[in-house]
Specification:
The protein has seven helices and twelve strands. The protein has helices at residues 3-17, 51-57, 91-100, 103-109, 148-154, 204-280, 288-314, and strands spanning 26-35, 41-50, 70-74, 77-88, 124-130, 133-138, 158-160, 162-167, 171-174, 177-178, 184-188, 194-199.
């Protein structure tokens, strides 16, 4: 459908305006641009009339310019119109379509024609799309209705002319109406002038880089943790070695002390034995009674000596 057909449809409405009042009846013109992460996408243009307006403009039969109009489900509402799309492969191609002609005509042509509107202008004064977002200025004169729109308004026609941009990336900021899922921004072709949309950059390379950095940071913490653990284990081992050395030293000291004690005890035992032996010696010429007492003392001394030796062995 080209511009002539659109103008013809408007002319049909204007002819009906002369005899009818279209209170609350709606004319729809929707331009929706869907953009993927790689910059490719599709522009879909829809033009149509709601049920009431369609009934009025076709009361005397369907005009030849509307013979290809069909029933369309438009956001849950049944309208009569036509919807066509034009694809693009990159941001550059999208910018070319929007800047060099009228996207409405380009979409409806089906073959990418960019014929200017009857008012001699494009729908956008400037249009620049990139992975960062979109910045543009709308020129409503590019719709090509001129004073005809005012006449239809006075007759009670309601205009629904949304301009939608839907992205795979998330919208983080926009001066239009942002959808709840943050992937679509909507403007009004008749009242809005400037478009400013900022997208959340989902560049896979940046995501991979972020993952690498995160892994590197984790690796640093793991290595650092292992070093700290190794240092702690070494310190524990050194402490254990020192404690063992101290224990061994104490044991050695105790053994030495034990040996000295034993030696001392042995010396004491020897001295005691010598003392007892000396005490047991019987002088020549003493009486029998005195000799018997001396033998008894000697036996007691031997017994004490044996007990001393036994205690030394147990120690």
């Amino acid at each position: 459908m080209n511009r002539k057909k659109i103008r013809k449809a408007v002319a049909v409405i204007l002819a009906a305006v002369m005899v009818l009042m279209f209170n609350g009846c709606a004319m729809i013109m929707d331009i929706t641009t869907s953009v993927k992460k790689n910059g490719s996408g599709e522009i879909t243009f829809t033009i149509g009339f709601d049920e009431d307006l369609w009934t009025m403009v076709t009361s005397e039969g369907v005009d030849s310019s509307m013979e290809d109009y069909e029933e369309i489900d438009y956001n849950g509402e049944k309208i009569h119109g036509i919807s066509e799309s034009k694809s693009f492969k990159s941001y550059e191609e999208l910018n070319e379509i929007m800047n060099e002609g009228n996207p409405m005509q380009s979409a409806m042509s089906g073959i990418g024609e960019t014929t200017e509107s009857s008012d001699g202008g494009s729908l956008f004064t400037t249009f620049e799309a990139s992975k960062k977002g979109i910045n543009a200025v709308i020129d409503s004169k590019g719709l090509g209705f001129g004073e005809d729109m005012e006449s239809m308004r006075e007759a009670g026609v309601v205009f629904k002319f949304p301009l939608n941009f839907t992205f795979e990336d998330e919208v983080i900021e926009a001066n239009g109406k942002i959808s709840e899922d943050k992937h679509t921004v909507t403007y009004d072709l008749l009242s809005d002038k400037e478009i400013s949309i900022k997208l959340k950059n989902q560049n896979p390379l940046l995501i991979i880089a972020a993952i690498i950095v995160a892994v590197a940071i984790i690796a640093v913490f793991v290595i650092s943790g292992r070093k700290k653990k190794a240092s702690a284990e070494n310190a524990s081992a050194e402490n254990a070695t020192a404690e063992n050395a101290a224990i061994e030293g104490e044991a050695t000291g105790e053994e030495a002390a034990g040996e000295e004690t034993a030696e001392g005890e042995e010396a004491d035992t020897g001295a005691q034995l010598q003392e007892n032996t000396e005490a047991a010696e019987v002088p020549v010429g003493e009486t029998y009674a005195e000799t018997e007492e001396a033998v008894k003392k000697t036996e007691e001394a031997v017994k004490k000596t044996e007990e001393a030796v036994k205690e030394t062995e147990e120690a």
